[in-house]
Amino acid sequence: MTHRLGIDKGHRQPGSPTGLCDADRVFRMLELLGGLSLVTDIGTGSPLEESLKRCLVAGRLAKIIGCPDSEVSDVVYTALLQHLGCTAYAHEVARVWGDDIVTTRAMFLSSSGELADIWRVWVPEAASVTGRSKVRVLATTVVTARRTHAEGPPATCEVASGASRALGLPEPVQVGLSHMFAMWNGKGLPSTAGEAIPLTARIMQVAFTAVMFALHANTEVAVAEVRRRAGTQLDPSIAELLIQRADELLTDLDQIDAYQAVLDAEPTPYARWSSLS
User: Fold this and answer.
1) Entry pTM
2) What are 15-26's pLDDT values in tens digits?
C-alpha cells in the first residue's frame, strides 16, 4: 500500500461531510491527525484535546504575527504533532519510574530548563504520582538524568519528524518537530539558539507552555509561566505577544469544540492524504 499527500482546493462533493473522504479514499489530513492527537494526549497524561487546543493557539499566534497561510498551516501541523514521538522513550521511563504516562506529564510541567524547577516542580509532582518520597525521587533523578536527557529528546524528535516526513508534510513541519526541545538561550537540544530556531518550533513552544498551564491551572498561571520562560526557553517577542493577547488567545479554551475549531482555522488549500491499493 502506498500513501500520497495532495492538496485540496477547497471543493467538496455534494453531501460530503466536511470533505472527510470520497470515492477515491481521499481524506483531509487534519481530520485524521486531529483524531490521532487524542491518542497522544492519552499517552502523555495530558488532558484530552490539549494537542488540539495547542494547535489552535499556535495557529492564532502565527496569524497575529502575520505569517502567510502556508506558514500558518505549517505551524498548525507542527503544534498538533508535537507529542507524536513522546512514547518513543516510554519503555525506558517506565523502567525507572514505574509509570511512564504520569511521569511524562510531570516532566512537561517542569520543562523550563531551569534547575530550580527540578526541586520546585518535578520532585513534588513525581513524588505525588509515583508514591515515592521526595528524597528518593531526587536521588533517582540525579542517577538517571544524564542518560534520560541524552536519549529521550532525540528519540522523541526523531519519531515525530520521521512520521511527518512519512506523511508527506512540508519540510518546515519536519524541521520544526526536530527542534521541539531547542531553547532560545541555546541550552536545549539541538543547541540551536535564538532566531536560528525554526519559527514553527518557536511558535509551538510558546503555545505549548501557555495551553499546558492554562489547562493545568488557569490563564493567569499560563501567562506567568510564559513570562518566566521568555528569553531563556521561549522566544521573547512571541512570548510577549501571547502575554499581551492572552484573553483573545486562551480564555475560550474550555468552551470551544477544539476539533471543529482547528478544522475551521486551517487555511486553504487543505492537505489531503490518500491510500491507494
Assistant:
1) 0.88
2) 344 444 444 577
